[in-house]
Structures are given as structure tokens and as C-alpha cells.
Amino acid sequence: MTERPFSFAVVLALAPMVLTVATAAGALACAGPGGAPEEPPARPAERARASGVGHPADLPTVLEVRVLDERPHAPGAFTQGLLLDDGFLYESTGLNGRSTLRKVDPTTGEVLVQRDLPATIFAEGLALVPSADGDRLIQLTWQNGLALVWDRERLEQVGEYRYSGEGWGLTFDGERLIMSDGSSTLTFRDPETFEPTGEVEVTLAGHPLSRLNELEWVDGTVWANVWGSTTVVGIDPATGKVTATVDLADLVTRLDPAEGLRIDVLNGIAFRPAENGGQGGETGAAGTFLVTGKLWPRLFEVSFEPKAR
Ligand SMILES: [Ca+2]
Description:
The protein is mainly beta and 309 residues long. 8% of the residues lie in helices and 43% in strands. The protein has a single domain (8-50, 67-306), classed as Lipocalin, CATH 2.40.128. It has four helices and 22 strands.
């Protein structure tokens, strides 16, 4: 599963449909989820309607992004994993020689604690597993076959797991870890042993959707950004069906032109629960999302709203 090549043909076939794969040629030229920081950013994607594609029951709801706030984000952070817990952002950054685990102030972007990883490690997705014995952060690596286990409180490494294949995104649904590897398959893993316990193929309008990258589980939906695009999809983990799509190209346009020249792709979704327990709206949960990208100098607080007619 993890060894199979990316479904380029499928991605390209989907381009004129619901999803738009921005700068498909440029994306295909990249080496992997890390990509070189010099790679040009994906251009703002064009939106395309899903009319006439697949069976209507399979078509996702098309949402649009509303930007609520902009905050600083360390521009040297090649964001690969992002989550919010107890008022702090925890962030995994990639690239060999630059991979880190960070605890970040979500308002100011200040890096409060940083753990530098060996130069041989290319870090990827990040998930929090709560435990009575102490919460653990689990950090994937791209091609090292290692998942690093950290004590969340001390940010000290306390263990590691080995796995086969690539590591891209990771999230926790309260019982299972959910992992992406660049393919259209999400793998469920035991949070204690990291052993696979199942998998589901993600489909959009009946077609496999590959390049699923950073993940965020929110109240029964797995949100994933699709690598090389500005598209975020909501996935039903029981069926693998994409139930919602939202294009975040607007965020790229909000960066200054000079900033936009240096950035890489959108990557990093964290959920921020509403402090007052407000209405869930289209995302099915009460809260907002914090979104950024690789080498982006900004982090955006956004909500996903019904598309205006
Ligand atoms: Ca996340």
C-alpha cells in the first residue's frame, strides 16, 4: 500500500472535477511531501464545480473559507504536523537537518520550546495521545520508518516505534491513531503499540484520492490537506468518503508578494475548540481551525462555511 506510486492519473483526472490540483505539473516535479524549500508554491487553485460527476450521493459539500484572524508563524518552520492542546500549539517541522518538535504560543507565534532532531531525521505528522500516565506526542518521520514518542509535558523523547512505508500525516480519534502516507489509504493504528489495526481507502466522488497529508480529527470527521494543492477535505473515516471540500487558496493571496515567493505548500491543520461551546456549523464541531503552510510567515484562524450562492 505504502509502496505503490502516487495516483497521478487519478489526481489529474480529478482536476477538472471537485478538486483542483494546483500547478499539477509543478507538483508532480516535487520529490515528496517535504519537497525542496526552493520549490515554487502551488498557485491558488481554481474552483471547479462537481456538477455531473459521479453519483449525487457521493458528491461532497463544497465549503468556503472565512478568515477570522492572522497571526505570526515562524517562517523557517517547514510545517509537517500541527495540533493545539491546552492552549499551546505543538508543531512538527521537516527537512533533514532542520527537523524539530516545537511548543508554540498560538497567538504570537513565539517558539517556547524547541527540540532539534538528528540531521538524518525528516520529521512529519504529529498526534497527541492523552493518557493517565502522561500525555504523549507521537511524531512521524517521512522515510526513516520511525515514529518518535515524546512526553508532552517535558517535551522529552520517551520512546519510538518502527513502521514500514512513508509517514505523512497523523491524528488521534480518541481510540485510534489515523495515519496518511501519501496514498489514498488512511491506516488506523493502536496508540499503545503503533501496530496497524485497519485501513480505509479515501474516495472523492467515487474515485481514490491520494496525496492526503496533514490530518486533524474533529468529532467524527478527519480533515486532511491534499499535498500540492490548497484543498482541504473532510473524510468520513468509516467509509473513506470525502464529505466536504474547501479551497484555501485565499490564504495564499493574503501573504505579501515577497513572502509568497519564499513559501512552500499549505500544510498544517489544528482544531481550536470554541471556549464557549458554540454552534458546530458545517464542520460538525464547535470551534475554528488554525491553518498554516511550510515556511509560511502567517498562521490563519479560519472557519469553513457554506458556500455563498
Ligand atoms: Ca493536525
